[in-house]
What does this fold into?
Amino acid sequence: MKHSLWLETVAFKKYPNLDREEHVDVCIIGGGIAGITTAYQLRNKGLKVVLIDADQITHGTTGRTTAKISAQHGAIYDDIIQHYGQERAQMYADATRMAQTFIKQRIQDLNIDCNYEELPAYLYTQKESNIETLQKEYEGANLLGFDCELLDTLQLPFGVTKALKFNNQAQFHPLKYLQTLAHEFVMAGGVIYENTKATDINQNEYGTYTVSTEYNFSVHAKKVIITSHFPMYDHRAFIFAKMKPERSYVLAINNASPLPHGMYINLEDPTISLRTYNDGDLDVLLVGGQNHRTGTSPDTLNHYAYLKQFSKDYFNSDDVLYEWSTQDYVTVDYIPYIGKLKESNDDIYVATGFNKWGMTNGTLAGLLLSMQILGEENETTAFYSPARFNPTIHTNNLMTYTAEVAAEYIKGKLQKGEKDFILEPNQAAVIKQDGDKYGVYKDDEGNVFMVDITCPHLGCELSFNTAERTWDCPCHGSRYSYKGEIFEGPSHLELSCCKNKIEPNIF
Ligand SMILES: Cc1cc2nc3c(=O)[nH]c(=O)nc-3n(C[C@H](O)[C@H](O)[C@H](O)COP(=O)(O)OP(=O)(O)OC[C@H]3O[C@@H](n4cnc5c(N)ncnc54)[C@H](O)[C@@H]3O)c2cc1C
It folds into this structure.
């Protein structure tokens, strides 16, 4: 796995693994930005809280973000106005601003040195056909009170046809910020267990919950919050069917020139996202993008190559100091799922589907979930509910998502295995044996690993990710090492070398 700049430039405090039975008010599963913010908020309200993480906290997607704290979430405001009306679009805008203010306030109050910088954010296009979209987005954003303007040119080393500028946005080092928040949580009496994977949640006869872990110990809680990025427990909420997994790539470029002032993202494909990072030692340009549905890229190394060439062409350097990739989940209506997992499930909550805007959406999750845990429901919490249903947008996009999954499922089944092949080191191939597909990978030392590549989650065929050396599922985003261990996604079973058991983990 490649390392991100954020993970390489901060000292981590290590927390123990679960070594006792815990009885608490709230158990939080997953220590990314959503889980840590929720934990911090709830402990400050006086609740007894345990946060468990399968790995080290902040080492998931949050450790591999680009960390723009922006309310400019692509061209979204006009869409929300069209589908949900101005009142709800205002809720989304205000909620996002509330999250931005929360981060800024914590940084000031706790005196966190996390390279926080306020800058404009630009959404630009290089296509005439997108001008109308940007014009409408400008009108929508203006209506909702954003300080924004439409521009014909930008101070970038390439031309644009139109750009939308949001003033007063921000960027930071997310892990310096979150390590402090986690520390404050612990100092206030909160407890963190790392390397403690939650394996199941069961309701007890008294209405409380037992969160089982991979150890013999459990956390017993009145309420459970799942912030594991992809929810590790679904209970027939079918969240996996309402989200699309998308991977993106980031390079940190040394000696880039000219360094742009501000944060940039384009409207079209292939996506390009730009921001700078300067901490006194490092002064780099982050070039990101190249989004694609997980498990559908023929060669993921090409995405790094594209971004490297782009940096060389426009910023006169291909000196890559760090490179990394990660994935996030996109919901059918581009609004995150934050709230009760199911209407009937009183005390299990979830936060996911941040649509690549988890610095604000994940922070917002912490704010909304802590309100809900304390019994404060309002129109905003209802708007973000995972159970919401908008007939036009949900029906259309759910059909599209389902069709995409079906297409990937069928494509995987029709794909022929290779018959005669010679594997070079660090190469993979798919073979067919007794009607089943197997993935074979040869590592740098010449060891060969074979796994059944039918995803244990719902039976889609996995494809090899050359850059990360993982087997990735194009349907719902589960990812496995070439040895078969699970890295992320909805699946909870490893790949076996023989035949995988298919177990959806939704009941
Ligand atoms: C390339 C890229 C760039 C991005 N850039 C931006 C940006 O500029 N601005 C922005 O706002 N957003 C951005 N995002 C989105 C943002 O990074 C994510 O939405 C956010 O980090 C997700 O946070 P999280 O807390 O939900 O998940 P994570 O950070 O993944 O945390 C989940 C945690 O849960 C743990 N976990 C998982 N399963 C279990 C289990 N069974 N038991 C216990 N623990 C478990 C994991 O170990 C992990 O630590 C970007 C996303 C990508 C892919």
Observations:
- Residues 29-35, 52-55, 57, 59-62, 65-68, 197-198, 227-229, 232, 248, 250, 288, 326-328, 354, 356-360, 362 surround flavin-adenine dinucleotide (CB under 6 Å).
